[in-house]
Amino acid sequence: MSLREVAIAPFEGQKPGTSGLRKKVTVFQQPGYLEAFVQAVFDTAPELQGGTLVLGGDGRFFNREAIATILRLAAANGIDRVLVGQRGILSTPAASAVIRRHRARGGLVLSASHNPGGPDGDFGIKYNIANGGPAPEAVTEAIFKRTQTIGRYRILDAMDVKGVTMPSSVSERMLDQWIDQVGEYRLGGMIVQVIDPVEDYAAVVGALFDFDAIRRLIARPGFRFRFDAMHAVTGPYARRLLVDMLGAPATSVINAEPKENFGGRHPDPNPAHAPELYQAVVVDGTLDFAAASDGDGDRNMILGKGIAVSPSDSLAVLAANATLVPGYARGISGVARSMPTSRASDAVAAALKVASFETPTGWKFFGTLLDAGRITLCGEESYGTSSDHVREKDGLWAVLFWLNLLAAKPGETVLSILQAHWRRFGRHYYSRHDYEAVDAKQAAAALDRLRAALPGLPGEKIGALTITAADDFAYRDPVDGSESRGQGLRVICGEQARVIARLSGTGTEGATVRLYFELFESDPARQNDDVQSRLQPLIDFAEVRTGLREITGRTAPDVIT
Ligand code: G1P
Ligand code: ZN
Hints:
Layout: E1 3-7, E2 21-24, H1 25-28, H2 33-44, E3 52-57, H3 63-76, E4 81-89, H4 92-101, E5 106-110, E6 122-129, H5 137-149, E7 152-156, E8 159-161, E9 164-166, H6 168-178, E10 183-187, E11 190-195, H7 199-206, H8 211-219, E12 225-228, H9 234-245, E13 253-254, H10 275-283, E14 289-293, E15 300-304, E16 307-308, H11 311-321, E17 334-338, H12 344-352, E18 355-359, H13 367-371, E19 377-380, E20 384-387, H14 395-408, H15 414-425, E21 427-438, H16 440-453, E22 461-462, E23 465-466, E24 469-472, E25 475-476, E26 483-484, E27 489-493, E28 497-503, E29 511-521, H17 531-546, H18 548-552, E30 559-560
Parallel strand pairs: 3-4, 3-5, 4-11, 12-13, 12-14, 17-18, 17-19
Antiparallel strand pairs: 1-7, 2-6, 5-6, 8-9, 10-11, 14-15, 15-16, 19-20, 21-29, 21-30, 22-23, 24-27, 25-26, 27-28, 28-29
Helix pairs in contact: 2-3, 2-5, 3-6, 4-7, 8-14, 11-12
């Protein structure tokens, strides 16, 4: 057993984005790359020394190697105990639940979320703090700073497995194998505790919902439902909750085996990347309810016969109906949404007379509000919804919430629940257009063009709408006062409409330009129109004012959700 200090030169660009450090697998495979980043985390978070760290990932390619390396780094950096998900698996919400339940001081979540996996795909690593949520910006900034000056990492060179010391080459392989068995092992002075990746999570979400009512719904003759795990991490979680605990037929959970490359698919639950499910439910109406989750299990897509639920609407519906769910029966304290998410949840918060918040994109901005009890529910347009039960978005939680609502509203369908919601609160037509892998300079130029136009926009018309405000979104956290600037360009037409433009902070190839469109419709007779047609004037406005097509030569977005 020996502790080694390895000299390294800093790597460029180890800057965590919207959700951790995401790069191509080949970038992570460079000797010392992962080590340098993780060492920077340990150097920035001295509270981990003598404490417990949670470690796991979505099972994508390079997950196991990364875990073996991180365990050796942790053991050399004075970490007391590491809780590792069996086979290296922990969904993002499960990692959050484990950190909280076991009072860990932090966690490392290995995932690039919905980005494709495999040797040519993406890998990612995210540091979560003791509240179970993503490290706030001040911490990710400090980690990035540290990566720029780092000169060494500490690693355990050889290790004791049950008292046997082996050379590092052998032990790395061994490490790979012992994470397959639940149990406790010693690695240098550190305990490695391999845990069932589902148990803590199932206990946390199991306490929130009316499982008896959902069980009866699922058993109801004629209720047909399906959950698509997209060959990603939620398979084992969905099986435990939906099949073992709720009695759903095993066949109702599809693509349930986590695969290193997600079966070659893009594990992003939206109509564009789950077209078969969309066709079967929304178009053909062969199922009453279907849902899917992403690579690391934090996103959700909800589909009903004839309707794909817009994530912004989903948040609003959950907020409006929360008291039907046992875990929220006493009501909610407030709702937060990311800035580009539609204002549907604001309307509900106003009606319920609870607080509503608009935060920058990324789950890390919800943490302080959740910790302070200012909000109970929060969500993003990017298929993310959750509550204060963890500090991450939570795909299966949203699915259980919807099942609980259907169980509590006999005779209602997903579509009828939404239509009733729109009649009461008005409908916010909503869509996001993504232009992917755009040349970074061209993307910046398009955003710059709109940014430069912002001061002159108020008073201008978009069709029948009048622009009332236009700015580059800046946020002051109401709890800790921290400031975040440059969070996306907003063109606002009062309560009627918004156009938002921002650059993605999670991509690994060039730049992704995201355009977001929202239009409010209070007239029930006009709430069932084609979404893209209703938004067309806003879409035209954004394309002209950014000059996106002219600058990039693109003629259409790559993905419309
Ligand atoms: C995207 C989503 C954002 C989400 C993040 C992590 O970030 O837009 O809402 O929090 O993925 O899942 P972006 O690529 O837009 O920076
Ligand atoms: Zn994700």
